[in-house]
Amino acid sequence: MILEQAECFVNSLRWQYAKTYPHAPHEYTCLAWRPEIQRQMVEFAYLLREQGYTEKYGNSDYRVLRIGDMKYWTMDKPLEHTDLINRTYVDDAKRASIAQFVQSDKFVHKKGMSLADVEEEMRASS
After folding, report:
1. Beta strand pairing status for 53-57 and 84-89?
2. At 8, which helix (H) or strand (E)?
3. How many angstroms separate the CA atoms of 66 and 64, rounded?
4. Is the predicted pLDDT of residue 126 greater than 90, yes or no?
5. CB count in 10 Å sphere of residue 37
6. How far is CA 3 from CA 68, 83, 113, in A?
7. Angle, CA of 113, 29 and 98, to the nearest 5°
8. Beta-bridge mates of residue 28
9. Helix, strand, or coil here: 84?
10. pLDDT for position 40
11. What is the greatest pairwise CA distance in the chain?
12. How far apart are alpha carbons 99 and 32 in whole angstroms?
């Protein structure tokens, strides 16, 4: 997989807001939703490892790949077992704004919402 294919791949996926990490807003996609993409998901994980950069989060280092205004990471080792991809905005201020909103009384979580849905709710509540 090359970067252009990776961009098409991630744009074709369903993304869901990870409500369990309001302090670190991100979304994820998982293999269980589309088992037929297993090969592409593993290829994406290899591309991420080969062309990404290392970023520290907490006490751990992660390989991160930037595509557009998003950064992507996986947590599976070995890579052949990749069944989940995470992503969030590269922009620290944008992430901080979303984190503040989702931890406020204004935010109402809806099952299956994406990070784009969270942003839309944030704009509507202003």
Report:
1. unpaired
2. helix 3-11
3. 7
4. no
5. 16
6. 11, 20, 27
7. 45
8. 16, 86
9. strand
10. 95
11. 44
12. 27
Q: What is the pLDDT of residue 123?
A: 93
Contact 18, 87 (CB under 8 A): no
Distance of CA 41 to the CA centre of its chain: 13
Is residue 94 classed exposed, middle or buried when 0-12, 13-18 and 19+ CB atoms within 10 A define those classes? middle
**Which tokens go with 84?**
């989940």
Report the C-alpha gap between 122 and 47 in whole angstroms.
Answer: 33
Tens digit of each residue's pLDDT (9 = 90 or more) over 57-114: 888 889 999 999 999 999 878 889 999 999 999 999 999 999 999 999 999 999 999 9
Instruction: Indicate the DSSP class of residue 76.
Output: -
104-122 tens-digit pLDDT? 999 999 999 999 999 999 9
Question: What single letter denotes the amino acid at residue 60?
Answer: S
19 touches 115 (CB < 8 A): no
Q: Are strands 27-30 and 53-57 parallel, antiparallel or unpaired?
A: unpaired
Is residue 31 within 8 A of residue 41, CB to CB? The reply is: yes
* Residue position matching structure tokens 């993304």: 15
